[in-house]
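ERR on first pass: missing label on line 2. Operator R.T. fixed the label and resubmitted. Corrected input:
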Amino acid sequence: MGFERSFAGTTAICGIGATEFSKASGRSELRLAVEAVAAALADAGIEPDEVDGLCTFSQDTNPEIDVARALGMGELSFFSRIHYGGGAACATVHQAAMAVATGTAEVVVCYRAFNERSGYRFGTGVQDRPPVANAENAAMAWNSPHGLLTPASWVAMFARRYMHLSGATSEDFGRVSVADRRHAATNPAAWFYGQPITLEDHQASRWIVEPLHLLDCCQETDGGQALVVTSLDRARSLPRPPAVIRAAAQGAGNQQHMMTSYYRDDMGGLPEMGVVGRQLWGTSGLGPADVQSAVLYDHFTPFVLCQLEELGFCGRGEAKDFLADGNIEIGGTLPVNTHGGQLGEGYLHGMNGIAEAVRQVRGTAVNQVPGTEHVLVTAGTGVPTSGLILGVDR
Amino acid sequence: MTDTLDTTPDAFQARLQAFEGRPVGPPTVAPDEVNQAMIRHWVEAMGDENPVYLDEEAARANGFPGVVAPATMLQAWVMRGLRASLEADRARAEGSTADPTAYDELFLLLDGAGFTSVVATNCDQDYRRPLVLGDRLTATAVIEAVSAQKQTGLGDGHFVTTRLDFTDAAGAEVATMRFRILRFKPKPVTAEAPPAGTDAPRPRRPRPALTEDIAFFFEGAKEGKLLIQRCASCGKLRHPPLPACPHCRSFDWDTVESTGRGTVFSFVVTHYPQVPGFDYPLPIAVVELEEGTRIVAGLTGIDVGAIEIGMAVEVELVAVDEDLTLPMFRPAGPAATGAR
Ligand SMILES: [Zn+2]
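pass 2 clean. output:
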């Protein structure tokens, strides 16, 4: 069948590590990256000089070679960067797993580190002169001169259309925020530890871009997160229980734009996540009923609803009913973002969500879902994206 | 006077104004006489080829008593040199300045109130007579004025004007220089536009990056046209523009002018962050044109509370500044929907 070289079921995440999540780290992004990578390797029980591959985001400012030099990794045989902002998160693990499965590398560390709050904040940096004329910058020519400048505004345009098509309301978006903050409230690593909110708090929070309130928007965070990928065989010899990579996939949809896919027939969905979901279920042989929790990318609440639909947890336009009555909170049928998500724990461009999925599979999460066999994780929404299914080693 | 009183704006301003008329420090005596060597270096660096600065004969022919110094060298004659400047800066930074000047005291007061940033705004010089070789200058600096708090494009701040009186060896005034700086509170990165009434020019909107694939759209807008790219082979319209047709793969294209009529397909009302160059709350829509393509555009002439998906709108090409025209949309009037 030719599957003997597939990464699915033959590779695993064997270590996770992070810095603290803060609003002002007080140190360089490179230092955050190096600290996170060192912590993940210590968790894995692997020495830095055994690492032969590194993988991060195109947007990351910390070159693989700097991280390698800082930790004395020596030679590297695999290094790769993935584009499209937070859409890269699960794809770093995907590419690491492919590298391991093909023998390109044995130990690959995936990382992301930034001072996104105290340093360069997304959505800033507008200048009174034309950007360099290339296709990537020209894509913004349709939006930025009109003032459609921030990720919140790009998502809000989808959210309005989604509300129109599905009947979802701002309160329905708010239920995502309430669930995340409930989970963060019992997670000591979360920025909003001990600070749950109510739906009334959500509704009373100020407008950022109508129809999005402040509490529909994730945090801005300083920090670093790293994950160590190796073969399942190797992982079995290490101290931590392996989080087996059951499936991993990337996806770009038809007529895809970066955050502004407003020109498709249907502007109410995230077809790129549908592309990811079909591959994840197909590769793993699993279905929505087989995962005990999910980490769904939540830079802005409305796209959590779209993801529930695209991934098949409910039908088109039914997410507002699916997440009613605390169904996505601990104790519900599909607890979502059990660490608090990016609204509650921190915005690490989705990488902290993968770490949470590893903890759920290990059985060590602060908000542990009993009987966990599989966890689904997604990456950035509104952009070409990626996803993972991690499972217990059986 | 107690500290409590000091914190009121009036009391703070009074403390600032108490510096007016105070000498900055002792008079500065020029280390060198006005001399040919320094003049030669100056005019060479400046690229000034006027012969009156170097040639005795040319100077006399122009009515001067002899070689004169370039007028704008004025301050150069009393500068203390790099090393002394650096040492003074270091001493100030370490707090080891033996005799704090009025400047030191004034800036400490301004720093303490949050006016920590500085920018030089302007410098004026008045000359009484040309300087000739052999002149030795003395400069006396006085804090002439400290303004009330002003709103500026950089942030709120106080203008500090320093006057330098230059005298010759006989004590006669040869020149005066006024040097103005702004000490201000730096604004956050995503600052609001400066309020009406400040004299800063209105910031311009972000510029589009104009590649060969999309420039036609903005050129058409300048001519008052809303253009849509059309495949010259199969005739299908496409927006945003692309170099090839996704339907027939042809690279040949032309444009059609839109009727400018359409409906709101989705919309947002932006409140935060408030970026200079825009008015908030800022309504922006995805408009579906009657030709079938969609376009992102600002809405104008509309009550932000009355926008609805499906409402009829029509284009207005708005010159937002001297070199950027954008299609914006306003509610379609009865005349627009009926007659045309
Ligand atoms: Zn064609």
